Amino acid sequence: MRKVIGFLLIASFAFFIVSLVARDLWIDDPAQVRTIGQAAIGQTIPQSGAANTVTAIVVQFRGLDTLGEVTVLFLSAIGVALLSGEFAGRGLNELFADDGGFILHYGTRLVLPLIALVGAYIVAHGHLSPGGGFPGGVLIATAVFAVLMTNVQQRLSTRLMAVIEGLAGLAFVGLGTLGLLGDKFSFLANVLPKGELGFLFSAGIIPLIYAAVGTKVAAELSTLVTSLTGSDKDAGPASVSAGGKGGAR
Amino acid sequence: MIAIVLFVSVLLIGLAAGAIFVRSLGSAVILLGAVSLLVALAFLLLAAPDVAITEAAIGSALTTLVYVLALRRTDSVHRADTDGELGMERAGGTAKGAFKGAPRIDGVARAADGSVLQSGVSSAGASRASEAKGDSRA
Amino acid sequence: MISVSAVLYTTSIILVLLGLYGALTRKNLIRTVISLDVIDLGVNIFLITIGYIKDGRAPIYVIGSGSLSVQAARMADPLPQALVLTAIVIGFGVTAVALTLIMRLYEKRKTVEVSETRGLKW
Amino acid sequence: MVSPMILIALPLATAFLIVLIGSRVAARWLSLAAVALLAGLAPFWFAEVLRNGPMAIVLADVLPPLGIAFGLDALSAGFVLLIAASGLLVLLYSVPYIPHAGQFEGAKKAETRYYALFLLLLAGSFGLVMTRDIFNLFVFFEILCISSYILVAYSQEERSLEAGIKYMILGSIGSAFMLVAIGLSYRVAGSLAMTDIGQALATAPHGYALLVAVLFTLGFGIEAAIFPLNTWLPDAHSSAPSSISAVLSGFVIEVALVVLVRIGITVFGTLMEPAMGVLALAGVVVGELAALGQKELKRTLAFSSIGQVGIMLFAFSLGTQSGDWAGLGQLLMHTGAKSALFLVSGYFILRTGSHEIEAYRGLARRMPAAAAFFSLAALSLVGMPPFFGFFTKFRIIEVAAAARSALGYAGIVVILFGTVIEAVYLFRIVRVLYGGVTAAAAASANGATIGGLGAPGSIADSTLLSVAGAPSSVPTLARADLPALAWIAVAAFVALVLVGGFAFPWFDQALQPVAAALAAL
Q1: Of B65, D41, D304, D447, whose CB neighbour count within 10 A is largest?
Q2: pTM across the whole model
Q3: Which tens digits make up the pLDDT trace of D98-151?
Q4: How many helices (H) and strands (E) does chain C have?
C-alpha cells in the first residue's frame, strides 16, 4: 500500500516538474545570461590574487557560507559525540573480532604519514590547485581513521581533538574579525597583501583561512569517528587502553 | 565526450537503483560508495575538479565508513528485510569470513533470532550478480 | 545531437525521483538514509550541470600556459561549484547525525524499522 | 556603532570556546554573557534601523551580487530583538532545568554541548533573518535545522530519538528541494541576490517561476510547520527537553514562517495566496481538533502551535499590509504565551515525573506560581479580553472582515471555531491544575493525605503510582515550585503577554514599520 501511494506521489511530482521546465531545460540553450560566476572569474586575480577561482569564491567572496559550512560540521561532530555517549569505551573490539592482522596493522603505520602529507599539501595549495580546506582536511582525518580501523585496541583522546578544533574555529573567526578591525571595516575581508600570483604565499588571507578550515575539518571528523567507534580515551568507564600510544598488539 | 557521459549516466542510474532496492544492506552501502565515485567522475567530466576531489573524499570514503559502522552496530550487515526486492533469495551456508562471529557483548539480539553470524562481509571482489552468502535471517 | 547538459539534467532528475521514492516507501531507516544520500547526489549533479558550458575547462588559472584572458573565456562557471562544495559537506553532516540517531534507536529498540504504530501518524 | 556582524561571530566564537574549555560552569556563564550582550545591543540596532532606514552590511569587502547581500532592515532588526530576548530567557531557564533533562551516560559532558548547540541555533536564526542571499539563507537554514534535530534528541529517550529521526528525514528532503529551487533561480537570474532573482523570475516563463516557488515553499514549509508538512512537529515538540520545545514553538517556527512569506512576496511575487489561505485554515482545524484529543500536556501544546501557525499564516495570506501587521502581532503574542506554557510544563513534568495531564491534579497547591503563570499564558493564548491575545486575534478578524473575500469570511468562522476549542482544552488543563483530588483518585490513592501540604511528596507519589504509571524515567524532585532563574524567565514571558494587553497601542505602533518591511525587500 505504501509503495503504491509513494509511486503515485513521485509520478505526479515528476510530471509536474517535466511539464513546467521541459522546454526550458532540455530544448533551448539558455539565453546567454551574464552570470555572476563569469564576473567572478574576471574578479579573482585583481581582488583575491588566487589562481583557483572556486577557492576565491568559497573563501573570500562568499566567506560567510564557508563559516556556516564549518559550523555545520562542528554541529554534526558535537551531535555525534553527544548522542554516542553510550558507545564510549566499548571500542571497536566489540564490533570487529580482529582487525586484519599484522600486515594491515603495520602497513597502515607506514602509509599514515604519506596520507597526512598529501592532505596537508592539498590544504596548503588550496588557492593554486584544485582542492582546499575540505578535501585536505578529510584526507588528514582519513589517516586517523586508518589508525583506528586497523587496531581495534587503539584509543584516541577526543579532548586533544576538541582543543585543536576550538583553536582552529577561533582562528577562523579571528581572521574574519581582522577585516572588521582594519580600515576596510567588513567581516572576512582579505586585508593581507596579495603577493605574486601562483606563489605559495600569495592570495593574502585565503591560505590562512583554508589552513584553519583544514585543521578544523580534520579535528572534527576525527572526533566524529572516534566517538562513533567508541574508542575515546577520555570517556567511558570500561575503556580498555592498549598500553599507551601505538603499543604493539 | 557525449559517449562517456551517456555511459556514466546509465551506470549511475543503474547502481543508484541497486543501492535502494538490493536485498542485503551490506551490498546497498557498497553500491552507494560506487555511485558516489561515479558522481565524482561525472564532476570531472563537467570540469569541476574541486568538487570531484571533495565528493570522492567525503562522499565515498567517509560516508561509506560511517555507514559500515552503522550497519555493524545495528547487526544489519546481512539483514535481508522485506524492503529489498532485487537479489536472489540466499541459500543458507557460510562463506569463510575474515571476521569470526564473536558473540557481541550485549549478545541478547543474537540469541533472540537464533542464528550466530558465521559469515563475514562478502569478499570485496564479489560482483553484484553473486550475492553475499549469509544466513538468511528469520 | 543530445547535449551533455541535457543528458545530465535527465540523470539528476531521475536520481532525485529514485531517492524520493526510496525515502518515502522504505521501512528500514538505514535504507531511507541511503535514499536521502541518492537525492543529495542527484541535486549536486543538477547544480554543477547548470554551470557547465560546452567544452568548458576547469575554472583554475594555469600560470604560464597562454594568456589569462584566453583561459578565462573557456572556463566553466565556478559559482555553482562553490555551492556544491558546501552542499556536499552539509549532506555528510546530516547523514552522520542521522546514522548516529539510528544506532542509538537500535540500542533501545532492537529494530531499525520505522515503527508503524507511531510512524508518521499524528 | 557595533557592527551587527557580531550577531553571527559572537555566538560562533563562544560555542567554539565552550567546547574548547569543556567545563560546564564556563559553558553556562559564557553563553549567558554572550546572549545577554546581544540582547542588550538588539534594541539599539532596532532603534537605529527605524531612525535611518535599512543598514546594508558589506561582507568580505566585496559588493553584492558578487559578495553576499547581508543587512538589517526593520523586519530583521525586530526579529533579532525577539530572538535575542527569547534566547536569553530560555537560557536562564535552562541553567536549573537541563541537568535534570537528560538521564543518560555522560550527561555531565553533554551539558557543555547543550549550550554550544543552543548558541549555534541562535546564530542560525540571526543569520536566517539578516541575509539577502538565497544560498546563504540555505546555509543558515541548515545550521538552524541541524541544531534543532540534535537538541530534539538531546534527552536520548526512545521517543525523542525517534522524533529526531522523523524530523531529520523530512527536513533533509525539504532542504534537497530548496537546493533545486536555488539552482533553478540561479540558472535564470545568473545571481544569488534575492532582488536580482525576483526581477528575473518576474520575466521568466510562468511555469518556471511557479516551480521554483513550489519547490522553495515545500522546502521551507516543513520547518515553518505549514499544514500538510508538519507531521514531525507533535513528536518533536513533545519529546524535546522543555526549554527546546519553548524555543522551537517560541521563535524557530515563526522565523521560518516569516522568511518564507517574505520570500514568497518579494522574490516569487506570488505567495499563492488562495492556496496558502486554505492550507492555513485546514491547519487551524486539524491542529485544534487533534489537540482536543491529547492526553499529554506537551503534545497538546504542540498541536495548539500548529493551530496558531495556521492563524498567523492565514493573516499573512490575506495579502494586505494590515493583514501582515495583524499576523505579526499574533506572532509576538504566541512567542510570549507559548514559550511560557512550555517552560512551565517542563517543571510540571519534573515535579510529577509524568507527561499526562491527569497526573497534575491539584498541583496548583504545591506549585502556585507555576500554575498561575500557566493560567495567565493560557488565557492570553485563547484571547481573553484584558490580554494581548484578545487584541491580536480581534485585529485578525477585523482584517479578515475588511478583505471581504470568501476566504476572509471562512477564516473568521474557522478562527472563532478554533478559539472555542482552544478554550476547551486549555481550561480543562487549568481546571485539573486547580481542581481538588477527585473522590475516585483519592480512593485509589489509598490514604494519601488530601490537600496535606505538609507532605508534598506523598500527593505526587500516590497520584504518580495510581493514575499515571509514569512512562518516562524522569525522577520527581522534592522542591515544590519553580527555581529562581526559571521563575524569572517564565515571569518575563508572561509579562510580555500582560503588558502587550495593557499597552497594545504602543506595541501596535512598534510593529507598523516591521510589517511594512515584510512586503519590501
Answers
A1: D304
A2: 0.87
A3: 888 766 666 677 888 899 999 999 999 999 999 989 999 999 999 999 999 999
A4: 4, 0
